[in-house]
Structures are given as C-alpha cells and as structure tokens.
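User: Hey, quick favor. My workstation is busy. Could you predict this chain's structure for me?
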Amino acid sequence: MAVRATVSRFPMEEDVQESSGLPWGITVTPFASKDENGLSPVYGSNGDLLPRCENCYAYFNTYCELDQWAWNCSLCGTLNGLDSQAIARYSHPQSCAEMMSSFIDLELPMEGSDEEMMQACPVYVAAVDLSSSEEFLELTKSALQAALEALAPGSLFGLATFSHKMGLYDVQGPIPVVKNVFILPDMEGTLPIELEDVMPLLQFLAPVETCKDRITAALDTLRPTTSWERTTGAGQELDGVLMGGRGFGVAMEALIKYLGSEYGITFALARVFAFISGPPDYGAGQLDTRRYGEQYASKGEDADRALLPEQTPFYKDLASVAVQAGVCVDIFAVTNEYTDLASLKFLSIESGGALFLYSNTDDSTLPQDMYRMLSRPYAFGCILRLRTSSEFKPGHSYGHFFPDPQYENVQHIICCDSFATYAYDFDFTSATGFSRYASEQPVLQIAFQYTVIVPPEELTSPRLVSASRSKHLLKRRLRIRTLQFGTARNMNELYDNVDSEVVLSILVHKVILASLEQGVREGRMLLHDWLVILTAQYNDASKIVQFKNGGSLAAQVDVAFSQCPQLQPLPRLVFALLRNPLLRFHEEGVHPDYRIYLQCLFSALEPSSLHRAIYPVLTSYSTPDKQAYPRHSLSRAALLTSDSPIFFLDAFTNLIVFYSSTADPALPFPPPQDCLLRSTINKLKQERSITPKLIFIRGGQDDASAFENYLIEEQHVDGSGFASVMGFVSFLEDVTQSVMEFMK
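Assistant: No problem, here it is.
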C-alpha cells in the first residue's frame, strides 16, 4: 500500500492551508505489494482479533500508547480497555504484526464452511463483436490466445459473440458447437429466450487446462457477419439511414444475468472481456452517434461540453446489475469511429474493470495488454476506509470506486490490481487546526479489506491441498497502514515539503471533474487560475513582490519559484497539462472518445506514471551503454545545446529512442539488446500497467514527428485566455501578468 501526500508536513491551521494555494491530500495505491519506500507489510493472522477504538473504530497500531490493560487511540485519544486474550498476545510483542509495524496485512476468517470456500474457480468470458472486420477478429484472436496462456490452471473460460444475434460456444465436446439466439431490434428489447435455456452455464464455461485446444479451434471459426446477414437480420431504417447490427447492450445484459446465477457457487468474481469495434447500434443500449457529427458541424454549442456526458443511463445501470451479479467488465474498443465511450465507460469502470482504446489494428498492443492484465495479481470485493485524527477530515475522494450508501469515507472497489490508485483531499474540522505539541501530530489510517484467489499450489495446509485438488481457495485479508505526519509552522515550510507529482494527481482529478460538469474550457480556466493564485501566494510569502506608491510592483514576480526547488516543476506540469489532449479543444482535432479514454486512464494512475504521461521524461545517452544526462526539458533548444547523440523519451504510453542527425554513424542502430539503454527500456516495460509502444527514429532519415510532437515547450497553448501565447517562456509571461493583476 503506497501512500503519498501533496505535502509531507501538513499545514498547521486552516489559514496557512488556504493561503498557500496548495491542494492538501493524498494518493493511495492500496493493493501495491510495497509502500512508497519499497517496504513490505508485516503479515499475520487473526485480523478479526485486532482491537478497535470504541469511539472512532480505528484499529490498534504502533502509534497508540499501550499499558498493561488499556490503550489510547492515536487518532481520537480515547482510552480503550484490552480483553484478556489481547493482554496475553501483547505480552509477546514479537509475535503480533500490529506491535511490529504500522503497515500490516492480516488474514481474516472466511464466512461459511471449508467446502464453500473451495468453490472459487476464476471465471473469464470473452464477448466478441462480429459486426466487425477480419483484421479486428484476427487481433482479438491473438489477444485471447495470449489470455489463455496467462490464465491459471483451474480457471473456467467461456466464448460468446454478438452482432444482430448472440452466440454461445460449447467447447467441451469433440468439436466446438455454437448456439445462436437473435436479438430483438427494439430499444426496450431483451433476448426472446434465457441464455440458460440456450446452453446450461456449466456447459458454456470450460476448464482451460483440458479445453485449451478446442477453445483455440472455436476462435479460428470466428468470422465477421456479412453485410447481407446484417441487413437481413437487423435491417432497421432510422430516418432513412440503414442501421448496423451491433447488439452490444442486449448481449452484455443477458451475459451478466446468465453468469449471475452461479455467483457465490461456482465463482466469487467473473471477468467479462468485451471486444467492440464500433458503437452499439442495435437493440437495447444502442447509441445515437449522429450527435458527434451534429456537434462537430455546429458552432452554436460547446462541443467539448456536449460530448462528455453520457447520452443514456443504460450502461451505468447495467454496471450496478453487474456488481450485484459478481461480474467485472473490461472493455477493449478497437476503432477510430465515434463510439461514444462517454456512455460505455460506466460499464467498465463502475464494475471494477478497465477501458482500453486502440485506434487501429496495425500496431495495437492489445495482446500484450491482455497478457499483462491477467498475469498480475488482483483483489476483489474490496472495501477501502480512510480515518483521520479529529482535527481534520477527508473532503472529496477520487477514483474508480463507488461510495458506501450508509457509511461516510467508505469506498467499495469491485476489482483492484497493484497499480490502481485513488485520491483524497482534506479539510480542517475547525479553524484552530493542529496542536503545537509534538505528541499530538496528525495521524491517518487506511484500512483495505479484500479477497484474493489462492491457487492450489500456494496452499500451505496439506489437508486443504488434498481437499481442493484443482480448486482455488478464497482468502479474505485486512491491510492497514497508519501514518503520522509532522506539521509546517508557516507557508515557507509547507512549500519546502511539497511533492509536485501528488499535487499534479489531485489537480488532474479536479480538472477532469470540472470538465465533465462544466466543459473543457472551464477545466482549463480552473487550472490556469490555480497556478496564478499559487504563484501570487508564494511571492507574497517569500516577500519577493512589494507594493510601492500604492500599487506599482517594485520587484519582478518570481514565476519560476527560484527560491523553492519543490515548487519549480509545477509551471511546466501545468503548461504540459494544458497542452494535453485531455484539455485540448474539440476543434483542434481531439477525438471525444480519446479524451474519455485519457480521463479513465489518468484517474487511475499512480503519481509517477501520471507525471510521465503529462510531462514525459527526456534522457540523453552518449552511447547506448552510457547515460549522459538524466533529464532535459521538452524543447528543441535542449536538444541543440546537448552534444549527446542519443535521446530516450518516456511518455508512459510511448517509449521513443531518437538518434540525432549528427550522431556518429558507427553507433549501433537500433541499440543492441545487451546495452544499458535496452535494459532500461525493458525494465520500464515490465513495470507498466499497460504495454508502451517502442519506437526507434533516426534523425535526418526517418519521420521524426512522433518524437518532435513531444517537444512542447515551443508550441502554442491554445484556448480561452491563451490565444496569443507561444511556448513555455511566453506562457510564464502571461502567468506573470495575471499574478500582477491578482495582487493589485
């Protein structure tokens, strides 16, 4: 569980926090195996016996004062008694995880009998769009082949297809058999027959280790539905336009209901991989994509605002049904046509799944992403609870979870991998703030309760192994992290303890929220105004700008934060975020689906990855085996002033190796496999949540635009209030003018 704060010393009181201009909050990556310093939790058992505070329900931790019969809660100060069991345990502190570390992971007893606990087969279902092309299906087949290699023995796999009809494959017989049922075309329609009546679910779900060859054979039979089939089976005309036959909504609804019948019996979590090549345009859940064309042509309405909200609650409602059925949906959209991901995204992110977008089939990383996603561990049925000491409280929470309807500051996460990150910001509960006594420092505690599926080979008890054979065991665990923070006595001390990457994370969440509610223009203005206010407050706190003769500025505004290294990255990060497609305007050619994809991606990334995605890391090498300089600014000037021949750019989703046109022809191109640069690239690829594309470019010979597009510091920052600004230097001049206006 990695936890990072915007400031490593918390503001002493509300006035300091508000005057600083800084967001106050944290990011949490709960299922990360280590903390932000690379330390693992102390593991233990009997999580149900961990003492809890009678007042605030916080868990006992190493910051609590303990005497022989009682303990003081480190969060609220309440004195709690210990029962005889706890007194006996705590007389041997080295045997208790909670006495050894403030970061612990304890096993919880599972409800139900051993036999019920064994019924925990991992279930995976692929739903493949046949209203598509041969190229799309070839890519999907490759992705599913990769998935079959990644799935653990004992997993069950089902193959379904959808177009104007829905197909279920039985791969447990000698040859694969498909049974189809036609989808009704009307908007309110469901399938005319229950899927359980088409094929019993346990006939549809096949054990991967014994049926892998037949699943592969079934994949080889997949063909796109012909235009004749679609127009005959689905021939619906709407205002003279012939509709296609992609009954995605009906197929998903039927599949979720079908799987839900075995939730808690055969499986504890079923994952559905939905492969889609265009917008749902048939049956219930169909989307009207003409709004894209109308908005694109219209000058009367803000397209950036109009294309961000969903046009139907169908998929949001379906996500709730999926959660109740124990089904998590991952959507893989391979398309460059408008698919309205603004509506579809809820089915994935609110059911615990992920949303992937690939603009074409040629250089798609879908198979690698699929393998990577299924190879890493994941937790499900998770509950995340944040508690704080009494002087402050959580304000907003951000991320792909949903709040508990009953309890405050409790979030439910359906499925969580080791990369998934969430954020909170804080408010003071009173104007007095924190005590000035060192013994009463701010404390926060994050409790993460989760379930994992343990394969038979990892079970330690011989009795369990023999009883389970190929069955998997469910284990419920409780991970707790308690942190104590120092306080900053003044603003300068606060500025000296800033983590700019976490500040960026909170800002990205806020501008995404503003964009969704009020449009992209509003999101941009919010970001620009924030930087102006921060700069003004910093200049005021540092006594750099003084007023003279009733208003003229006697000293130059320090817009580069020259006296505070921790704040120095922020102007570049804000500039880069304004240049990012997330906040670029529709008329600049930003596809609305790509914007939605970035919103979903960025709001789940941990701070270091998000930093790279917004402002890539540019490194230079004198040879493939020797790094020259660890970090350059993203400008052509940086390239020209560096005499290094090789540059490596890490933009999170893309990795680019660029050889300058003046590089010695004797340097090996591309870099050999056994060099430092290659090993750096391979390490980065291994550590990513998605597969980055690797591009090699030789300056003067290859098209270098893919690399040069990232050199943003000489590029325009367009948009409201920025129309005349050219490049980063001019952007700083604009901020300076705005700061002077603000401070008058």
